[in-house]
# Entry
Amino acid sequence: MTKILIIEDEEKLARFLELELMHEGYEVEKSFDGRTGLELVMSSSFDLVLLDIMLPGLNGIEVLRRIRQSSDVPVILLTARDAVVDKVTGLDSGADDYITKPFAIEELLARIRAVLRKSETSNENHHKDIIVFGALTLNTKSREVYINEKLIYLTKKEFDLLQLLLENKNIVLSRETILERIWGYDFSGGTNAVDVYIRYLRAKLEEPFGIKIFHTVRGVGYVIKDE
Ligand code: CA
# Structure
């Protein structure tokens, strides 16, 4: 269940928001001051924080700065003043969005959905950067490959071939498909280039570690598959 924290000192508004959000199916917690709110963010895990700027004690911008020292939780600022400086300071401090009071609840709900969607997508993308297969870890961003946390040096083509097979796990790729994807249409070196590179990869990734990663499918090509 998606969990939202409301940090808002106007108790009536906080309760109204709580009811509306619960009605939308969100799980809600609320806090009426910055310090307690910050403690809640640090001690529990929320999917989103609605943060008022004008709070007694620790103000919203200060709360946001401290949240950002250790957390990427999406934050939408609630500001009473339509002052440009608030928005700029807020966004500079790492807010994902802001809304100016008074606001229509529909607008806030739409912004919440948008921010949650964005944070979900960025989480998915982050996970896609790292491909794990048994003892093997491949990072598509840094282009690093590890076996049991040991960094293995691969050439560009070796890396591309490994990534292609990992991204098509359990699907047998023909030598022609591999050639086309890694070497391009106009490559004239013949399909045994694929066999040569699989041999290189085996020598680097399988043999030293006594593990099996690449399977040859006779007459077709290669596959990395779950056992
Ligand atoms: Ca306030």
